[in-house]
């Protein structure tokens, strides 16, 4: 409004502030008070909000997939006393949103007739009292300009930490096996650790069950075409794609896709706040539990 009035005065010096204020339906004194406030530094609540907004923008720039709950927790960890609704209000006013993307999937599962001897040992209980008692795994396809990159990930139920991962430029049952062998080599779980997956053909193959039995792992498989039976792993892949793949645009090469996956896993394990862990990163939660 102030700039508008100045522009009108420049066009026609004879036109008074009072006439413009009458045309705009405001009082002359109110206009001068408002113009004076615009020239003065912010004070009180406005100054607090401006400083808080700067911190929110800083965190959101580092983690663009954070919404109000995670940004609020990060601010509290920095020693900034603020309410979650206050953070949400500022983000809403300034159009700061968690960067997400669409989730598209086409489930492929083996019929119940294959491996009827293997059931669901988890029953949608996705937590464990200690590390290396329950692992989740699954496969996903990452679209690139060179075709799909297939990626397998192994996740610990207690800390939600990504233990290992493997990729291949084509679809093969060996991808999840390599990820599983790497996880066993790094963690060396005691006999009886459960490895849970969906009913994909890779996880009903004899090679998969032979490797699991060799290392004392108990195989668990969810029901056919039921993504909720492996929701912890499905949720991880959804976060990866919504927070990194979709927002950052098309991937040109499979090498770039591998790099993006590695960077996200590193950030996820070491820095990303996880709501199921009391808004701690998996690594910090593991240290706390230890």
What would you note in describing this structure?
This protein is of the alpha/beta class. 47% of the residues lie in helices and 12% in strands. It has twelve helices and five strands.
In short:
The protein has helices at 2-11, 17-24, 28-39, 44-62, 68-77, 84-93, 174-187, 201-204, 206-214, 231-245, 254-270, 282-289, and strands spanning 134-144, 147-156, 162-168, 194-197, 218-221. The protein is of the alpha/beta class and 290 residues long.
What coarse outline follows from CA principal-axis ratios? elongated
Structural class: alpha/beta
Distance between the termini: 60 Å
CATH-level-4 superfamily name of the largest domain: Ribonuclease H-like superfamily/Ribonuclease H
The CATH class designation of the largest domain is Alpha Beta
SSE order, as H and E?
HHHHHHEEEHEHHEHHH
Uncertain segments of ≥5 residues (pLDDT<50)?
A: 105-110
CATH topology of the largest domain: Nucleotidyltransferase, domain 5
Nearest-integer average pLDDT: 85
Question: Roughly what fraction of the amino acids lie in strands?
Answer: 5-15%
Task: Describe the main β-sheet briefly.
Answer: 5 strands, mixed
Strand segment count:
5
Number of H- or I-type helical stretches: 12
Helix fraction by DSSP (H/I, runs of at least 4): 40-55%
Tally of discrete structural domains:
3
CATH architect. name of the largest domain: 2-Layer Sandwich
Strands in their spatial order, largest beta sheet: 3-2-1-4-5
Radius of gyration: 27 Å
């Amino acid at each position: 409004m102030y700039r508008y009035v100045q522009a009108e005065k420049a066009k026609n010096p004879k036109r008074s502030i009072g006439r413009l204020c009458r045309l705009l339906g405001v009082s002359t004194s109110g206009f001068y008070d408002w113009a004076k406030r615009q020239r003065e530094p912010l004070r009180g609540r406005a100054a607090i909000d401006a400083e808080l907004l700067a911190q929110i923008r800083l965190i959101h720039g580092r983690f663009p997939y954070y919404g109000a709950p995670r940004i609020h927790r990060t601010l509290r960890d920095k020693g900034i006393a603020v309410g979650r609704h206050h953070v949400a209000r500022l983000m809403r006013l300034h159009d700061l949103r968690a960067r997400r993307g669409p989730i598209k999937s086409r489930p492929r599962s083996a019929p119940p007739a294959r491996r009827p001897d293997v059931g669901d040992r988890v029953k949608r209980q996705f937590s464990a009292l200690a590390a290396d008692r329950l692992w989740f795994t699954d496969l996903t396809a990452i679209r690139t300009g060179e075709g799909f990159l297939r990626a397998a990930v192994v996740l610990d139920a207690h800390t939600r930490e990504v233990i290992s991962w493997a990729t291949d430029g084509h679809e093969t049952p060996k991808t999840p096996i390599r990820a599983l062998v790497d996880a066993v080599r790094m963690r060396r779980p005691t006999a009886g650790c459960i490895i849970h997956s969906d009913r994909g053909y890779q996880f009903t193959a004899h090679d998969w069950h032979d490797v699991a039995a060799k290392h004392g792992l108990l195989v668990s498989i969810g029901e056919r075409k039921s993504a909720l039976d492996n929701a912890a792993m499905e949720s991880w892949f959804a976060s990866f794609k919504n927070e990194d793949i979709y927002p950052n645009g098309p991937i040109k090469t499979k090498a770039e896709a591998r790099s993006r996956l590695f960077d996200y896993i590193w950030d996820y394990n070491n820095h990303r706040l996880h709501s199921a862990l009391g808004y701690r990163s998996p690594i910090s939660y593991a240290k706390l539990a230890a």
